[in-house]
UniProtKB/TrEMBL annotation:
Positions with biased composition (Basic residues): 13-34
Protein family: Belongs to the JARID1 histone demethylase family.
Protein name per UniProt: JmjC domain-containing protein
GO molecular function, one term: oxidoreductase activity
Taxonomy, superkingdom: Eukaryota
Listed cofactors: Fe(2+)
Lineage, opening ranks: Eukaryota, Viridiplantae, Streptophyta, Embryophyta, Tracheophyta
Region Disordered, residue ranges: 13-46
C-alpha cells in the first residue's frame, strides 16, 4: 500500500489540476426533534421546503449534517475519533486520497474504524473504480460497490443489489460534504424551481420570421409543432431502441454501453450526477435512427456541412433518467443549437452571453469553467439569487414534440424532469458565421475547439472551403456587421438635438 506521504503528495498534485471545478458546499442547517434518534431517516420533509423523492433510500450509513452536532449538546463527532491524526484533513481531501486506492485496499481500510468504513464506502469512489476498470462492461446492481464486487467476483451470486452487502449504521457521524452528496441525489425539485416560464413560444412561423425575430437578434425561442411528421415521435421508446440497436454500444460519460445495460442502470440508480447517454455517432452506428428524424426547416443552413467528414461533431442522441442533465455551459465552437424532445420533458435555464450565471466561474480565456458539482446543488444554492436580478434568466419546460433554439454564446443548464430521449444538433448559419470564424482563430483555439481531431487547422479549412463555395460572402457579412455596429453607436435624432442645444447654451455663456 502507498505511504501516507506519497498519497498526500499525489492528491495535492491531483487537486491542482482540478481548475475546472469549484465545489460550493454550503452547510445545511436542519432542526431535529429530540424524540427521534435519526430524524433524517424518518422525515420526508427537509428545512426550507425541500422534500425527498418517494423512492429515496435512507441516508447512507446514518451520516448527518454538521449543524445537527451543534443541536446535540454532549455529542462527539465520531468522524474525528475514527480518523485519528487524519481528522485534520477536509472530507474532500480525504476522499481524493482514497480515490488513489484500488477496491481491495478500500475494502481493507473500511475495517479499520467506523469512520473509515463510511469514507471507504462513499459511492463515487466505487463508481470511478467501475468505470475505470470495467469500462462499459458492467451490469448495475443497485450500488456501485456491489456492481464492482459482482463484476470482479462472479461467485458472489447473492449480491443482488446494495442491500446484499452489509450496511453499518454509524451513530453521531456528522459531515456536510457527505450528507449533501446524498441529499442532492434524493431531493425532489422544488415547485418554485419549475414555475418560471418566460421563453417566447411560436408555432408555424416562417423561416424569415425566425431569422429576423430570433436568429439575427440572438434570442432563444421554443418552437411547437416542428416534429409532428417525425417517425421517431411514434417509434422511439425503450423496447424499440433496444431491439433496433442490439449489442451496439453508445457513449455514456467516459464509457460505452449497450442500451439495455444503460436502461438497467438508469432504472436503479440514485446518485447526485447520473450518467448521461450522449452519443455523437448514433446515426452512423444505426442509420435507421438518422432516417427517422429530419432537421426542422429553420436550421437547415448548416455551413459546417461543407467540410463533409472533416466537420466537428454536431449531432447527438441524448438519453437519461430524471435528474440527469448538463450543468451550465456554452455550446462548442461558438455554434448555435437546437434541441428536440422526443420523449419526456426537460427544464431549461438560459443566460445571455454577457451574463455569467451565479456560481459559475469561467477562466479568462474561456478554456475552463468551474461550477457546482451537480445541477441540484446549483438550484439549492444559487437559483434563488436570480429572482432579484435585473437580467433574469430565460426559463422553460420543453416537452415531447417541442424544439428549443439556443443561440450561440448563451449559457444554459438542462435537467431531465423524467426519463427523456432527445436529439440535438449544433450548426453554423450566415447569422453566426463571423462569430464562429472569430472563435476558430483565437490564439488558444487549439484548447477551445472541440469535436475534431484537427483543432489547429480547422479555421483555415473552414474559411477556405466556404469561400470556394460562396466567394465574397465573408466580406459582405463583415461590411454588414460594421454598418450595423456603427448604426447602433450613432446618436438618435433627439440625442443630436439635445447635444446641439447644450452646445449652444455653453456658447452663449
Amino acid at each position: 500500500m502507498l505511504s501516507l506521504r506519497s498519497l498526500l503528495s499525489q492528491s495535492i498534485r491531483k487537486k491542482k489540476k482540478k481548475n475546472n471545478k469549484i465545489k460550493h458546499r454550503n452547510k445545511l442547517r436542519r432542526k431535529c426533534t429530540s424524540k427521534k434518534q435519526n430524524p433524517i431517516e424518518e422525515e420526508e420533509e427537509i428545512e426550507e421546503g425541500f422534500s425527498l423523492k418517494s423512492s429515496s433510500r435512507s441516508n447512507s450509513h446514518g451520516v448527518q449534517p454538521l449543524g445537527n452536532l451543534y443541536l446535540n449538546p454532549g455529542s462527539v463527532n465520531s468522524r474525528n475519533t475514527g480518523l485519528g491524526n487524519l481528522q485534520i484533513l477536509s472530507d474532500e481531501l480525504l476522499l481524493d486520497i482514497l480515490a488513489l486506492l484500488g477496491g481491495t485496499h478500500l475494502g481493507i481500510l473500511a475495517t479499520v474504524s467506523k469512520s473509515f468504513y463510511v469514507f471507504a464506502n462513499h459511492e463515487p469512489l466505487w463508481r470511478n473504480l467501475v468505470l475505470e476498470n470495467l469500462k462499459g462492461g458492467f451490469l448495475f446492481n443497485g450500488s456501485w460497490k456491489s456492481t464492482y464486487i459482482f463484476g470482479f467476483y462472479k461467485s458472489f451470486d447473492d449480491v443482488k443489489d446494495d442491500f446484499g452487502l452489509s450496511c453499518l449504521r454509524v451513530r453521531d457521524f456528522y459531515s456536510d460534504y457527505l450528507f449533501q452528496s446524498w441529499l442532492c441525489a434524493n431531493l425532489e425539485l422544488k415547485p418554485e424551481w419549475l414555475e418560471r416560464d418566460n421563453i417566447v413560444r411560436r408555432r408555424g412561423i416562417s423561416v424569415e420570421d425566425f431569422v429576423s425575430g430570433f436568429e439575427e437578434s440572438n434570442k432563444p425561442v421554443l418552437l411547437e409543432g416542428c416534429l409532428d411528421n417525425w417517425p421517431a415521435i411514434e417509434n422511439w421508446d425503450r423496447d424499440y431502441l433496444v431491439k433496433l440497436c442490439g449489442d451496439l454500444r453508445f457513449s455514456v460519460g467516459p464509457v460505452e454501453m449497450k442500451l439495455e445495460d444503460y436502461f438497467r442502470y438508469s432504472d436503479r440508480v440514485r446518485e447526485e450526477r447520473p450518467l448521461y447517454l450522449f452519443d455523437p455517432k448514433f446515426a452512423e452506428k444505426v442509420p435507421r435512427l438518422g432516417s427517422e428524424y429530419e432537421v426542422p426547416v429553420y436550421f437547415r443552413e448548416d455551413l459546417f456541412g461543407l467540410l463533409g467528414n472533416e466537420r466537428p461533431d454536431y449531432r447527438w442522441i441524448i438519453v437519461g433518467p430524471a435528474g440527469s442533465g448538463s450543468s451550465f455551459h456554452i455550446d462548442p465552437n461558438s455554434t448555435s443549437a437546437w434541441n428536440a424532445v422526443i420523449k419526456g420533458s426537460k427544464k431549461w435555464v438560459l443566460f445571455p452571453p454577457d451574463v455569467v450565471p451565479p456560481g459559475v466561474h469561467p477562466s479568462p480565456d474561456g478554456a475552463e469553467v468551474a461550477c457546482p458539482v451537480s445541477i441540484i446543488e446549483w438550484f439549492m444554492n444559487f437559483y434563488g439569487a436570480t429572482k432579484t436580478w435585473k437580467k433574469k434568466p430565460i426559463e422553460c419546460i420543453c416537452k415531447a414534440g417541442e424544439v428549443i433554439f439556443v443561440p450561440n454564446g448563451w449559457w444554459h443548464l438542462v435537467i431531465n424532469l423524467e426519463e427523456s430521449i432527445a436529439i440535438t444538433q449544433n450548426y453554423v448559419s450566415r447569422r453566426n458565421l463571423l462569430n464562429v470564424l472569430d472563435f476558430l482563430q483565437r490564439p488558444n483555439a487549439s484548447e477551445l475547439v472541440s469535436g475534431t481531431r484537427d483543432r489547429v487547422n480547422l479555421y483555415e479549412k473552414f474559411k477556405n472551403t466556404f469561400e470556394a463555395f460562396f466567394p465574397g460572402t465573408i466580406d459582405q457579412l463583415v461590411k454588414k456587421a460594421e454598418e450595423k455596429k456603427a448604426k447602433e453607436k450613432a446618436p438618435s435624432f433627439w440625442d443630436s438635438v439635445l447635444d446641439s442645444n447644450a452646445g449652444a447654451f455653453k456658447f452663449s455663456l
